[in-house]
Write the structure tokens for this entry.
Amino acid sequence: MKKITFLLLVSSNVMFSQIDANSLFGLPKASTTEMNSISLPNEGSILYNTTIKGVYFRDDTSWQMLTPIKNITSTDPFLTINNNSSVFEITTTFKDVTSELMFEDDDYCYVSMIENGTEYLVIRYDKTDINAEMRSTGTGAQPSTLAEVQALTYN
């Protein structure tokens, strides 16, 4: 009977002991050069890049860095993002938009519109990076030709 009691005490002690650093699961490590020289990496592979000090995963064509979300911001005038203890609250404010016109040249696509009946907004999208957008706003007549939207100042 004493032997059984002794074994139970040892087992319960092991369950509450600290985790040994050698027992942690680690990702494969590679420098940027090594990572990029892997021939035919499998989609879904994950590794730790020792050059960048970050975790990467392989999509169907390239290595993508997994970036922790610490802060989200927006330059969109219709979108407000508040960070409250890592809980992101997103609020949208839509304006009354009318008279949308679209134009295109070799480098950009333009969308011209009237907001709230009195102001115009022109958004210029770069054809090489659709996420790169610039805006021009003003009052008065809406820019309604390609030449007028090209002549605006964007920021």
